[in-house]
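Collaborator request, handled under Task 6.
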Amino acid sequence: MFDLLKEACERARRDGADYADARYLAITRQRVSSRDHALSGSSDSDDRGFGVRVLCRGAWGFASSPTFTAAEVERVVATALRIAGASALAPRAGGVRWAPEDAFTLEYRSDCRVDPFTVPLEDKADLLIAANDEMLKNRSVKRAQGFLAFNRVERWYVNTEGSELYSDVTASEAMIWAVAVGDDDFQTRAWRAPNGSFGFERYDKAAFVGEAERIAAEAEEKLRAKLAPEGEFDIVTDPENLSLTIHESVGHATELDRVMGYEVSLAGSSFVTRDKMGSFRYGSEAVTLTADNTLEHGLATQGFDDDGVPAQRWNIVEDGIFQTYSSGREFAHYADEARSRGACRADHWSSIPIVRIPNLYLAPGRQSLTPDELIGDIDHGFYFEGMDSFSIDQWRLNFQFGGNAVWEIRNGRRVGMVKAALYQSSTPTFWNACIATCDARFWEPHGVTTCGKGDPMQVAQMTHGAAPTRFRKIRICRGRDA
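Structure tokens returned to the collaborator:
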């Protein structure tokens, strides 16, 4: 692989490029779905190709192809150079400032102990159908579903600076859910199994069946749940629920290309302007949000990014103060940084790299604190568990989030479920309302696998983590079930 990729970069340089990189990707996917007592679908794909990016005359050009031959490499390089030449006719003010990076050689492989692509389909069907059968034992559950999804990406990368990089990352994802039906209502309860860059070793039939029994009972309980009252209450979020809030209100808000206006036409801008670096109080002193593309089993952990920058770890928010952004080599200078944070990724061999949210997590509390202690002095509040509906404005500022299950807290204890509960706030107000998070014993990672960004749209994955966390005086409003 490397020989033709090197030839692409050398040809681009000979023909006038100031910089070039070339990537070859081999992408293998499988998805297995179930409904009630049977499989509902199974699909497999194998997708391979390469892309060449050139910087020439102060402008970018990119071209790609599924055919990896010497003749096709020559054609693709020529196409990329022509595109750069056309782009140079309308130059960007100030040109392209490409942050320097030392050449290096690296091989990275994720920890995959049981290759999911070698596990027989019968075993996957048995796991899913056993979970469905268990959910359907509950007489209120009228529909039981689930899926397993596996993704392996092999990546070969070279650039004109001399880097020669390889990664092999396998990611796994699974989910089951139950739909309970009453006289005039239906409610869904889901369990997201662990997901991350690992293999089938994390999936156990007994665990799926045990969770299936629990979520079926909770789906039935949601049918009987009362509507949530509205007003200001202390809330506690579980790690899965908070992972989506971290993603939307911190992850996207601190992508440096978004801050500089490169997403305005599709998904908005950001309130986290550059004057806030090093001084803006993003949250309370209990809030440290760490970006970590070296995180073991993280969905964004792949050894290096698609700008040829090694994986890194840094604080985006430290003790409540905003520090810096996620960036790529083209954008680092906007943050007055000499080096990229290594957060530029492409979702496919035919896609150009863009800044993506890294693995990003809320650091656990420094003092010993259990979930029971966290809620022990709440007279009246709510506990949000799991992901559900959400919305956030174009500035990543005003938002509302729901939970897949929400419990009322009375006198320091979780009591009955409520339905239609949403918490509503603005990003700095919410994070400044954080008063405590449980310690590392209760910290959990949860992945986002369908993060959309860019035009044309690219879909990326990353891991977020947290422990149960408490926020003071957050507005509760009612959603669609009211």
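The cover message to the collaborator said: "DSSP finds eight helices and 25 strands in the chain. The domain at 2-224 is CATH 3.30.2290.10 (PmbA/TldD fold). Please let us know whether this matches your experimental observations."
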